[in-house]
């Protein structure tokens, strides 16, 4: 097939690489003026591209036909290569040499109607005129391969016979003769040449088989004999198959030369025939009808080169390898030797020039596969993979490779790896001492020295030959080493790296990828003596290219980052040290450039320090990294922006895993940053704080204290910023005044609330970090100090946080401290419980201080506090339970006066939960074996008050120690209610000014709390004394519970009532107590007399106090007050006296201490009655209908009583009190009757109390 394009001139000669680089893919714009007057009309690259596309489609159709003939024909028709008619298809099959003959046979032998018509047209194309029958049959069978199916053969032979008779009408009587003879000849061909036939026919057999086939007459015997001899001596076979078989046989022939020559002649003959067909166009499908043109466009080169490159590469490589090294003839003086050396030198130069040009062409047209193949071939020709056999021509190849790298580096891409490996090997070879043993390390294990093995002289060269060969290698190697160390070679290598600055962004990335890969091979190739040549070169070219734009440098550093991560973690100290020092040099130079606020380039640059520190365990490397960072901070702190993050990451890791010296060194840098550069770490403030938090986990107390001091300074700096911001916007008429203590001095400053970014990016990391220290630190002192520091910051600066920020602090900072408290399976530690209690008390103080500014508007914080108190009480620990109630007392006493109904509801619900969980209900459901009816009515009443428990169920597990713990905590809970209900507000710490002790220490706060609680308890435990009175009666001092809504106040009373009823039921259940005693868990009969006495005393005292404050109630509260206060007051107080009288009547039935406790209760009732304003005559009761005269008499009596008061006598009560306390006044006769029965009591304290009571009764009788 002739080619339509002839390139008469090389258009690349007028092109430059720079032109191609700038033009990119728009190669069609590049044209070259050619010499002569060649017409350029029609020399359009698009035109040739279209032709090429058509050719590709044509070849695709041929391939499809060769596999599936029917589909192939349809495809070619569809694409317009064949007209859809039978003669055209037949002509295509006949004249297309690339079609497979077997596929043609399958197609024309098919039984399809269209295929049969094509077969007829196909056979009609053959002209058998004047051709002998056997020759005609041979011609016919050369156009296709006979299919194996008999029906297909039948159709083909039938048409052949018809065509032969048509062109030779006088040879046979009819076509049947030709048809039969054709089959007979085919059978003869098989019989004579098939290896499977054991007995072959002879001439007589063949003649006999063909008797009477010529219209019942015989063909001449001589004619048939000639046919027999023709077939037997010359097999009918496809010439193409014969040529292929000849080639295969020639390649594997083991016969004599004559046989090989015959096979060779057959193959050559077929090649000549095919070439002749292509040149003459007799069998070609595409005829040479194109115009011969001069190529004026560079694009024509690419497809032509794509076709020619592979054989060209094979030819150039083979010619280079076969060429004799001219250096071998250096000592020759003969003319022929010199001429031979010159020819070989020219051949070597031409091969290298051809390879270089091929690389240049493939690079220009971005033919990556071809370019890579040529560069790889050139690299192999350098001989660096078998150094011991290198010759001067290999050195020339090395020079050529270096030249390619210098001139075509823009296009090398991944082939930089080959170039750099060659340079690395050259550098390694320069380290070999001259005259010494040649090391083979790094060169695929090929040894430079060859020693004879074995004793046979027939298979090995003699010693003199070995000596001569070794001498030649030494000379060649010495010359090669001189070449490597020559100034030209060194300059060429240096120029490669220096010219990297001229590479484009993509090209420089490829260079760095390759040089990093080669450097890693150097480092890892020899563990004992690793090489760092390429590592030095990396630093060099990185320094060259640091001036690139940020986008390109970022891509470069992504490669270098991974590289330094790997090299810096090398097990060889020299390698890792050099890597870190190189990294420091690059960082110092890069940090000299300013970085805008939102960029992250410095962070990426310094991140390898953090990675190496984390993954390299060497302490020396850690110290080197810290010293490098110190140097960078000292010299470039003002330019560092995002680079702070990896630095603080290194310091933070040092704080946790470093030794003492490293920790001190790192912390000194952190302190230096705060002192000298704090204003420039704003963008990395969170990382700085996290770094300080990590130092708080260290075991060096001095370092920990210093870290916490810095955290406090950071918080103070933030507060000062908020103050300065407020000062800039100060408008005193619209801003709230807060009392802020600064350095121990009060200062009134207007503070504005922080915005969201400031809170989450500055404040929150500080408080969250301290919370982490409190939770995770293993040192008790550190946890406690961190806790105090945390609340100092919150107390001192919390007023600038909005409500939603406090919710975040509560959920994320404070509550995790108590996370283990919520775990029922958590095994408590003394340290943890101490932290819980300390944190809870500090939270209560925080709540008190920040109530007016923050917590007045939401109750989540209060709910959390009460939940924590409940959890403390629920633990099976007397200490935790008591401290929980103490914290509840602290919370209420400091904030109770500010609580509204919603908050009192929360407190009341918590109190009810505490009373319920500390009441040992489990003891009342034990199966004692005694019917429940015998336990008495009181037990039933106690069971009714208790939570629902299935008595019918199996007896629950009883833990006596847990019951004792509950009782102890329950006593404290009763005492808390007593304090809240009976102690004057004036005895508690003032809560009106929660900021009065803003900077007081935690120890002072705790001491003050303990003293105030102790004072309140001492006053309450001494019993109610006489209260101050005024002209209108006793002055009722304010209590906490007085400010509480009525319903909530009554629920507090109900807690006391249930407590008393429960312990009373237990104490009265002798069978249950005896059962517990007999169970062996206690050494004596159990009782709850102390709890009963305290509960009843508190309950009755509170009832009297509430009645004195609220009386019978007013309006809608009257009925509630009577039911909740007056009725139980009368019932319980009378029952106390009656029970005491009953004990006196049977003194032997009750223990002495029980009788004494009951006497004290009786005294309490008598004195509480005296303190209650119910002492007025019956006749003096004033109603709303009383006349003016009665009012005047009352005024006179009031004046007389005032006179009596001045003389120390008891005063009377007002008219309002008379109306207020009528309910209890009506019960005085019953109390008097009970008192009469106490006259015979011998106890002095009872007689004194009775005497006072009877004295008031006597005065009342006198008034009446």
TrEMBL record:
The answer to keyword Cytoplasm applying to this record is yes
Q: Report the PROSITE patterns cross-referenced here.
A: SEC7
Gene Ontology MF terms in the entry: guanyl-nucleotide exchange factor activity
The GO biological-process annotations, alphabetized, read as: regulation of ARF protein signal transduction
Q: Where in the cell is it found?
A: Cytoplasmic vesicle, COPI-coated vesicle membrane
List, alphabetically, the GO terms of the cellular component aspect. COPI-coated vesicle membrane
Composition-biased stretches, type Low complexity, lie in 451-464, 996-1007, 1188-1200
- Subcellular location, principal: membrane
Where is composition skewed (Polar residues) in this entry? 1201-1213
Q: Which Pfam families match?
A: BIG2_C, Sec7, Sec7-like_HDS
Write out the entry's keywords from A to Z.
Cytoplasm
UniProt-listed SMART domains:
Sec7
**SUPFAM superfamilies from the UniProt entry:** ARM repeat, Sec7 domain
Region listing for Disordered, in residue ranges: 442-469, 996-1040, 1186-1220
In this chain the SEC7 domain maps to 47-234
Q: Cytoplasm among the record's keywords?
A: yes
- What this protein is called in its record is Guanine nucleotide exchange protein for ADP-robosylation factor
Organism of derivation: Modicella reniformis
